[in-house]
Specification:
It is a single chain. Strands 5-2-6-9-7-8 form a six-stranded mixed beta sheet, sandwiched between helices. The chain has a two-stranded parallel sheet with strand order 1-10. It has 329 residues and is α/β, with parallel strands linked by helices.
Amino acid sequence: MTKYNNSTSHRGHNARTPGAAGNGLREHEVAQTIHEKFIKVTKAVDCTDDAGTTANANLVNIVDRMNRVGKSYHVSHHLNAFNGQANGFEVWYFAGNETARKLAQAICDEVCKVTGWVNRGAKATTSLYVIRASVGTAVLIEWGFIDNKRDMDILSEKMVDAVNAALKVMGYSTAGGGSSNGGGSAVEKPTPQPTPSPTPKPTPTPAQPEKLAEDGSLGPLTARRWQVVTKMQIQDGRISHQWRQAQNQNIHAAVFDTTLIGSNLIRDVQRKLAARGLYTGKIDGLCGEQTIRAMQRAKGTTVDGFISAPQSQLVMAIQRDLNAGRSPF
Ligand SMILES: [Zn+2]
């Protein structure tokens, strides 16, 4: 069996800057219980941060601790939240790190097998901070949706089985009291994470964020910076729940589906544009023609209702604002 030497573990968020909540539960408290079960077995260094008073400070403190420990496998424990209906288990990894992808997928498969959770699978990211800014190989586990009753019923009943399944994948045996490691297996060297080109991996200095390429392409890095600058609660670099049309199909950060739920970031833009009298459509979070036209009007670029590729003038204007630390709208 492959042994993924678990060097650090932490739970996300803290009491001063709490994460999600639902079903009478708070994310950092539930994740703490899971994290404690994890480190009891793996003896990983605890990189949890209770000092940070903002989401950003909390993340920076966590990654500082991770990077002091160095290159091996880091595990981050979180719970998802969305609309009460969304459910299931997923594990995030750095896009392009094949070892991490395999580990993430195997954790999904084993945990869902023993719990019955919906398997949302391994998810690639280049924007989640603990994954992007840490040295070595980090995986971020979303242990179900805290605002979904069924997910939390499963977690309360099967937490031990779920944690043990993840540990088993990483090469740790939990038989007989849960403190021995998998016997005689070779420790796998983590693959170094690929550096996103063309800019080098940034060191964690949130005061001076890395400059975005002003390339007119609305990808995850631009979306994440937009979320950070406008202080969105979720800063995942995704413009979620978009309805695919010719007008918005070149938004690379968009996640297209048929839910019509929309994105909080776009809802925020629509509210701001409506307040300025530039937008009269619905505040639905969907970046369609009307919203694109309103953004173009606000930025003084060609008003055609399309995000063009490979280079959108509107997106370039947004990137210039973000690099200056300003909300684009
Ligand atoms: Zn979280």
